[in-house]
Design a protein that fits this description.
Structural class: alpha/beta
CATH architecture of the largest domain: 3-Layer(aba) Sandwich
Order of helices and strands: HHEEEHEHEHEHHHHHEHEEEH
Largest sheet: 8 strands, mixed
Oligomer: single chain
Strand content: 5-15%
Distance between the termini: 114 Å
Length: 388
């Protein structure tokens, strides 16, 4: 009896449900009948909006997919473009400058790292004291430009204990690096040449520029020059001054002194990495190079020598930028004021806006890949100077 009761209840419930559904359907059909135009408009609006939404979602998905693929492809291309070591043998026939009796360079090598791309830009990079081409590797991996980082004679780590790479004069250094630059230009005709120097590497560009002037304006066709924290006089040469006076029998003491100079934790991290790197180099090379540079720059001449050398480069290549780190802030206004009154070869030379500037980052951050990409890209965007 209870089974039949349950069945009857299910039927009754089912009947109620069908009744409710039927009433609802009847009501809906009545409403659609009454408001058929409005209903069709509503349905049409909903369909159009739905199609538009689907289309926008589809377009967005395609854009994201294409972007993701393009970035992945760029990354894959970047990984496949290797940074390779290269070298030039120093030959007597290719070296016109008179070498000092103590500068034993012939038959030795100048070494560099190169990331060759199909770019129409050739970017040559010169390192700071005690550093080498490897310090530019992060930047070389971050740019599409054809990049070459040159290591100065005797500053590769594996040359530290090689007696064939004893210290040489600053004049010979300038001639050797100039020779490499000129050779790279000949091997890459038609490419826009940009030279970048960091710290003493920037000083070396100024010195090579003076060499071009003394040789009768033998500078190659330049698209741009970027000088990062060049020295201006003895006031900017804290590290070089220490190395110049270093006791070669006990170089550790000078490294300890330099480790005490940072004022912030980030500066301490930078100087620690720097000291770790240069401690593997030949201390005699460091001392000779630092001593020659310390003698090259004056004690205090109101920036006249620096402005003279910079002006020659600016007249040779108008696309020149000089960027100082935050440590130069206390001197920058004096340099800027001196540049306003500077006389060049008997006439007034006006420095272009933006040629000299100071940025709020640390010395070693100037060779970070992010900063270098930004600065070099800005130079490359500018039109090429007129052909000589």
């Amino acid at each position: 009896m209870s089974e039949w009761t349950a069945r009857l209840r299910r039927v009754a419930t089912s009947g109620k449900t069908h009744t409710v559904v039927a009433i609802g359907a009847f009501a809906a059909s009545g409403l659609i009948g009454i408001y058929s135009d409005q209903a069709r408009s509503a349905i049409s609006w909903t369909l159009h909006r739905s199609v538009a939404v689907v289309l926008w979602i589809l377009i967005f998905a395609i854009a994201v997919t294409v972007t993701w693929w393009a970035r992945g492809e760029a990354f894959r291309r970047q990984r496949h473009i290797a940074i390779t070591p290269g070298q030039y043998t120093i030959e007597t026939g290719a070296f016109q400058h008179q070498v000092g009796a103590d500068d034993q360079v012939f038959g030795r090598r100048i070494r560099y790292l190169e990331r060759r791309t199909k770019s129409r830009h050739l970017i040559i990079l010169l390192h700071g004291i005690g550093l080498d081409a490897n310090d530019f590797v992060p930047y070389m991996r971050s740019t599409d430009g054809h990049t070459v980082a040159i290591t100065s004679f005797g500053f590769n780590a594996d040359e530290a204990a090689n007696h064939s790479y004893e210290p040489i004069s600053l004049e010979t250094h300038a001639h050797l690096v100039n020779g490499v630059i000129q050779r790279l230009v000949r091997q890459n005709p038609g490419k826009n040449l940009v030279i970048v120097g960091f710290s003493i590497g920037a000083d070396l560009i100024l010195r090579i520029g003076d060499l071009w002037r003394r040789q009768g304006n033998t500078a190659p066709q330049l698209h741009g020059i970027l000088l990062l924290d060049p020295n201006t006089d003895h006031s900017t040469m804290l590290i070089s001054r220490g190395f110049a006076a270093m006791d070669l029998q006990n170089p550790l003491e000078e490294f300890k002194k330099l480790s005490q100079t940072p004022a912030t934790l980030s500066e301490f991290q930078n100087i620690s990495e720097y000291l770790y790197k240069i401690s593997k180099k030949n201390p005699a090379q460091l001392q000779r190079h630092a001593k020659d540079w310390y003698e090259f720059w004056p004690d205090n001449d109101n920036y006249q020598k620096f402005l003279t050398l910079t002006t020659y480069l600016a007249t040779t290549c108008p696309n020149i930028r000089v960027r100082f780190s935050e440590h130069f802030e206390q001197n920058f206004n004096r340099l800027r004021n001196a540049s306003k009154n500077f006389q060049y070869e008997g006439g007034q030379f006006v420095f272009a806006d933006g040629l000299l500037d100071v940025v709020d980052i640390d010395h070693f951050d100037l060779i970070s890949d992010k900063f270098l990409v930004e600065q070099v890209t800005d130079l490359l965007r500018r039109p090429s100077p007129p052909t000589k």
